[in-house]
Design a protein that fits this description.
The complex is a heterodimer of chains A (116) and B (117). Chain A is mainly β. Chain A has no helices and nine strands. Chain A starts with 8 loop residues before the first strand and ends with a strand. The mean pLDDT of chain A is 90. The chains are: A mainly beta (116), B mainly beta (117).
Chain lengths: 116, 117
């Protein structure tokens, strides 16, 4: 499976923008880029996903490099509630790697700390 | 609250005992997943159901582990003869799968934390 690389940790000041990078140099054409986050003592929650174009939703923006070998999750104004582990995940939509392509393969993610 | 519930939230057991966890997914979701998470690691996939059919099992799921989803509703995960290495958070997730959709957002429950003494 294509692998992602993320920094272990990042810090941000409250109310400032945060850019969380993810490298995925071996991404295939059918891999969607998904971001989930996990707040302390909770299960992961979906943040955003995309294929080639940049995406925006109420939680965040996803900027995808033109060659798709990297992406950046952007939180426009960090709040204390955004302190979490952020996971960048590739998922093969067409299931070309087999029937089990629906599961999410998590790495260690980036632990984001937000400083008041 | 995502709408996915898990019971119990915490379980302490002695090595060698059997334990069973329950997951109630969002009612209209046809897909259900079990993951395991140890401290400092991301969740690891264990198994996946589409309706009542168990379609995928990770090699992490040893023969001491069994999962069921009768009638395609709630699911149970049983661990027999627990070992200390089974201590982890067990997470359940569900999604509404519509063919090979890119938008297979998974909704996770709060997890069951298992401690094996």
């Amino acid at each position: 499976d294509a692998k992602t690389t993320q920094p272990n940790s990042m810090e941000s000041n409250e109310e400032e923008p945060v850019h969380l990078p993810c490298n995925h140099s071996t991404i295939s054409g059918t891999d969607y880029i998904h971001w989930y986050r996990q707040l302390p003592s909770q299960g992961p929650e979906y943040v955003i996903h995309g294929l080639t174009s940049n995406v925006n939703n109420r939680m965040a923006s996803l900027a995808i490099a033109e060659d798709r070998k990297s992406s950046t999750l952007i939180l426009h104004r960090a709040t204390l509630r955004d302190a979490a582990v952020y996971y960048c995940i590739l998922r093969d939509v067409l299931g070309l790697r087999g029937a089990g392509s629906y599961q999410l393969t998590f790495g260690k993610g980036t632990k984001l700390s937000v400083i008041p | 609250d995502t709408g996915v519930s898990q019971d119990p939230r915490h379980k302490i057991t002695k090595r060698g005992q059997n334990v069973t966890f329950r997951c109630d997914p969002i009612s209209e979701h046809n897909r259900l997943y079990w993951y395991r998470q140890t401290l400092g690691q991301g969740p690891e996939f264990l198994t996946y159901f589409q309706n009542e059919a168990q379609l995928e099992k990770s090699r992490l799921l040893s023969d001491r582990f069994s999962a069921e989803r009768p009638k395609g509703s709630f699911s149970t995960l049983e661990i027999q003869r627990t070992e200390q290495g089974d201590s982890a958070m067990y997470l359940c997730a569900s999604s509404l799968g519509l063919g090979h959709s890119s938008y297979n957002e998974q909704f996770f429950g709060p997890g069951t934390r298992l401690t094996v003494l």
